[in-house]
Amino acid sequence: MDFEAVIGLEVHAELATTAKIFCGCSTKYGAGPNTQTCPVCLGLPGTLPVLNEKVVEYCIRAGLALNCRIAGYSKLDRKNYFYPDLPKAYQISQYDLPLCRDGFLPLASGKTIRITRIHIEEDAGKLIHSAEEERYSLVDYNRTGVPLIEIVTAPDLATPEEAVEFLEKLRRILMYLGISDCKMEEGSLRCDANISLKPAGTPQLGTKTELKNINSFKALGRALAYEIERQSELLMEGKAVKQETRKWEEAKQRTLPLRSKEETQDYRYFPDPDLVPIELDPAYVAEIAASLPELPEAKKRRLIEEYHLPEYDADLITGSKHLADFFEAVLKHYFSPKAASNWIMGELLRLMGEAGLTPEDLTVNPAHLGDLLRRIDQGEISVSQGKNVFERVFRTGASPEEIIEAEGIRQISDEAWLRTVVAQVLKDNPQSVGDYLGGKTKAAQFLTGQVMRVTKGQANPQVIKVLLAQELAKVRKKTEETAGLARENKDL
Ligand SMILES: [Zn+2]
């Protein structure tokens, strides 16, 4: 029997506010354990939470970008559970009245994935478990009270590939909005997946499992693929799938049961009596809507239309708002869209990859790349010299002009002088010349290399190509004449 997968995602994004959701503590990642805490986020008795307005604003931004309805009236609820990472023994979240509802996000295929809701909530602390034989755990409350939004999709995704594409698109949008840095490896973007199988073509839904501990896009795809395999084997054997939460084990590339899934009633949600409901003025929401940046899909379309970039280039460049902004800034200095895109996708991304940098860390001055492209177009330096110069621009931040001056880099296009160099190279390499004349055209590459060596890489490759062809033709003619003469002498 064939099965179809039914997949829904729950995505948590840490919001990039400077302060926590109900107190003034810093949200900065990586500080010493428990250094960013106060009586409020430690849940000490007698303290009162005060809602950080930025959190509401950021959630509305996400809701608007994902085509949601923004609630005029919303409230915060307590979700009760007892675990050491939660000092109050309840998490402040939103239950029945989330800030945003009924949105959607289209995939590249045109299929639309519905977004059921987006709500705000506080993060819990982080437990650090010691090695098994030592039998203790440590807790770091720095993360307690860091604001989150939870984005819940309808079970509209049918394959692991669709789930990964959705998450990538969502991440791109949240980063464009500037509301989260979305680093999966630092936990600022987390994704849980619900998955069940049903017989192909039928409407009835099977029992679902929830997958946790997914730390990368790759892990999301693999965990879902593994779970499809596991569930279909069970169903084929006539066994039942258990409703449970399972953990993705990266090292072993498998899912393992974590606990039986809680039901909503287990959390005994109730409205938080310490916080007033959120009432939104439509004018405030309209103001936020007007301030939204151009979103990735719109930007991609515009780059294709305005600069005639191929779809592939536009997609790669709009993969990050920083990269797209950099691209357009380069064009302000020197307008050559396809060349700029080639250099960004080739040299820039290669150098950034080698240095372990993300587009957000990009510090290259766009004027420098624009200047370099102009110098190459004008024949002042060659493309390969340009690549060397750009690598130095990237590493030192110096301008192409400074580097070119300091190193005496220039491109020699002086034909008369280059012709003497070419002639000398041909004289010094009779073997290669013979090979070339004998039909081994590859020998020309060797000869070009020799000219480059003599000129320290500064010869204009275009000029060399022409001169080499001309000089080789001369040699050929001479050889033929000599051979002709020899025949005539013999005949005499
Ligand atoms: Zn605090």
Short description:
The chain has 492 residues and is an alpha+beta fold. 42% of the residues lie in helices and 18% in strands. Helix 3 links the parallel strand 12 and strand 13 (244-249).
Topology:
Elements: E1 3-14, H1 53-65, E2 69-70, E3 73-74, E4 77-80, E5 90-93, E6 100-106, E7 112-122, E8 126-129, E9 137-140, E10 147-153, H2 160-177, E11 189-199, E12 209-214, H3 217-236, E13 244-249, E14 254-260, E15 270-271, E16 278-279, H4 282-290, H5 296-307, H6 311-317, H7 321-333, H8 337-354, H9 366-377, H10 383-396, H11 400-407, H12 415-428, H13 430-437, H14 443-454, H15 461-491
Parallel strand pairs: 12-13
Antiparallel strand pairs: 1-10, 1-11, 2-6, 3-16, 4-5, 4-15, 6-7, 7-10, 8-9, 11-12, 13-14
The chain binds zinc ion (ZN).
Write up this protein.
The protein has 492 residues and is of the alpha+beta class. The chain has 3 domains: 3-287, no CATH class; 294-407, no CATH class; 415-491, Arc Repressor Mutant, subunit A (Orthogonal Bundle), CATH 1.10.10. Helix content is 42%, strand content 18%. The protein is built from 15 helices and 16 strands. It has helices spanning 53-65, 160-177, 217-236, 282-290, 296-307, 311-317, 321-333, 337-354, 366-377, 383-396, 400-407, 415-428, 430-437, 443-454, 461-491; strands at 3-14, 69-70, 73-74, 77-80, 90-93, 100-106, 112-122, 126-129, 137-140, 147-153, 189-199, 209-214, 244-249, 254-260, 270-271, 278-279. The strands form 4 sheets. Strands 2-6-7-10-1-11-12-13-14 form a 9-stranded mixed beta sheet, with helices on one face. A 3-stranded antiparallel beta sheet has the order 5-4-15, with no helix packed on it. Strands 3-16 form a two-stranded antiparallel ribbon. α2 packs antiparallel against α3 and α13 packs antiparallel against α14 (443-454). The longest helix has 31 residues, at 461-491. The radius of gyration is 32 Å and the shape is elongated. The model has no long low-confidence stretch (mean pLDDT 92). Bound molecules: zinc ion. Zinc ion (ZN) binds at residues 20, 23, 25, 37-38, 40-41, 145.
